[in-house]
From TrEMBL:
Domain of life: Eukaryota
Basic and acidic residues: bias regions: 1-13
Residue numbers spanned by region Disordered: 1-21
GO process terms (BP): mitochondrial respiratory chain complex IV assembly
UniProt protein name: Cytochrome c oxidase assembly factor 4 homolog, mitochondrial
Coiled coil: none
One Gene Ontology term, aspect cellular component: mitochondrial intermembrane space
Length: 83
């Protein structure tokens, strides 16, 4: 019997992995998996630079949007008003 692929997204381990959960919340999970699959298949990170760049771009966009959201919340929050 063949063991499951380490990149099989149906594994229960992924559900408990805090890194997997964090990446999933960013909306970039499929791109993360594409990087992992490329690395597993090619065994050379240099060959996977297109996937890496796409994932980085997605994460950067998420981080910018999250920062803007937090700044908006701070400017609206009564706790942020000077005393």
């Amino acid at each position: 019997m063949a063991s499951p692929s380490p990149h099989d997204r149906s594994r229960k381990d992924d559900e408990d992995d805090p890194v997997e959960q964090m990446i999933s919340r960013t909306g970039c999970a499929e791109l993360h998996y594409a990087v992992q699959e490329c690395m597993a298949e090619k065994q050379d990170w240099r060959v996977c630079q297109d996937q890496v760049k796409t994932f980085i771009d997605c994460m950067t966009s998420f981080q910018k949007a999250r920062k803007q959201q937090l700044l908006r919340q701070q400017s609206v929050s009564p706790d942020s008003a000077p005393s």
